Amino acid sequence: MEEVVIVGAGIAGLATAVALKKVGVRALVLEKSKDLRATGTALGLFPNAWVALDALGVSDKLTALYAPFERGYITDVKTKSIQDVRYPPNNRIGAQPRAVHRKVLLEVLAEELPPNSIRFSSKITSIETQEERHSPICIVTLEDGSIIKSKVVIGCDGVHSIVAHWLGLRPPVYSGRSAVRGLTVFPKGHGYDRSRGIEQFVDVGKRAGFLTLNDKEVYWFFAGKSPPRGMEKGADPQMIQREVMENLAKDFPPVYLDVVKRSDLSSLTWAPLMFRYPWDILFGNLAQSNITVAGDAMHPMTPDLGQGGCSALEDAVVLGRHIGGSISKHGELVARDVGFAIERYAKERRLRAATLITASYLAGWVQQDGSSRLMRFIRDVLFYGLLLARVVSSVAQYDCGKLPSVSSLPSCESESSI
C-alpha cells in the first residue's frame, strides 16, 4: 500500500515526487526502463521553469552548472537576413533561460528523493479503482504480476500514456513534422560566442539550430515537414546524421553542418512531433477517482516554444500545492479530500496547457509551413520581428506558485509519520 504512485520517472514524474516530498508526502515512482532515460539529450528551460525549480528547491544546483542566455538569432537560409530576438528574465525572481542536459536535470531531481523512491523495470499493465472503507483506492498491476494499492495515481508516462488512456483522453496526433536531436562534444572547446544564445536557421518547411551547453558541448536540432528517409526501417544514428547533412540541411550554413558532422552518434534521436488537440485538454477527462496525469501524458506539444519540459515542472508544483492541502492532522493523505485536490489541479492546468499547445503549434506552422511571399512576410516581419519575443516572454512569465512547507500545512506532522 502506497500513499501515491507516480507512473514514469521523466521530468514530470520526478519533479512531482519532489514536490510531494516538500509537502510531506512520500511517493513511489514506477519506471519501465532499467535506469533514468534522457531521450532528447538537452532542453531549454525558460524563466517559468526556473520559478518551478526554485519552488522545488533545486534551481541553485543547476544554475551553478549552466550559464543563462538573453537572446537568439534566426537566419533565413535563402535570403541570409538575420533576426535578433531577446528573451527577458522573469520579473519575480530574475530567472533567465538556460539550456541544460536532460539527464543532469533528472539526476538532480532524483537526488532529492528518499532511498527506494524509484522502482525501475516496473511496467504497468492495468489500473483499476475500488472502494475501501468508503474511500477510493487505486490498484496498479505490473507486468511481473505484482499489485500495488495507492490512494493516488499520477500518470507521468509520456505521450503514449497508459494512465491517459484509462482516463479516456484521446490519443495524441501527428503534427506533420518530425525532429532530429543530437549532442556534439568539442574536446578542445567549440569557440562559439555563448552570448549569442540560440542560433536558428529557417527555410521552407525546415528549421534547425544549435545552442551551447558549456564550453565544450553543443546541443543541436533539425525539424522538418518530412521524416528522414529510411526511418521506417529503424533509426540508425549514422543514417540519421547522413540524411540531415546530405539531404535535409544540405543548404544550411557550414557552421551548422559542422556541428552535425561532429555529433556524438550515441546521442542522435529522431521522433515524430506529436500533440494533443487543445479542446481535448479543455473538455477532456483530466482527473477521475484520484487518478490524474501530468507532463506529456496530459499535454504533449510541439517543441516550437520550448515549453514541454517547462510546463511539466509547472504541473509538479501545482499538483504538490493542491495535494499538500489534503493531509490530515495525523500527517496522512485523506483519500476523499485528495480527489477534490486533483480536480482543482486539473481545473487550474486546463487553460494553461491548452494555450501552450496552441501557441506552440502555431509557432511551428508560421515558421515552417509556408513558402509564399505572404507567409514569409508573416514569418519574418510579423512573427520574428514583432511577436516571437512577446509570445515567449508572455508564456515564460507564468508563475506556478510556491509549495507550502510541511510545518506550514495545517496540523501536519513530519514526513516520517506518513
TrEMBL record:
<dbReference type="GO" id="GO:0004497">
    <property type="term" value="F:monooxygenase activity"/>
</dbReference>
<feature type="domain" description="FAD-binding">
    <location>
        <begin position="3"/>
        <end position="357"/>
    </location>
</feature>
<keyword id="KW-0503">Monooxygenase</keyword>
<dbReference type="Pfam" id="PF01494">
    <property type="entry name" value="FAD_binding_3"/>
</dbReference>
<keyword id="KW-0560">Oxidoreductase</keyword>
<protein>
    <submittedName>
        <fullName>Monooxygenase 2-like</fullName>
    </submittedName>
</protein>
<dbReference type="InterPro" id="IPR044560">
    <property type="entry name" value="MOase"/>
</dbReference>
<dbReference type="InterPro" id="IPR036188">
    <property type="entry name" value="FAD/NAD-bd_sf"/>
</dbReference>
<dbReference type="InterPro" id="IPR002938">
    <property type="entry name" value="FAD-bd"/>
</dbReference>
<dbReference type="GO" id="GO:0071949">
    <property type="term" value="F:FAD binding"/>
</dbReference>
<comment type="similarity">
    <text>Belongs to the 3-hydroxybenzoate 6-hydroxylase family.</text>
</comment>
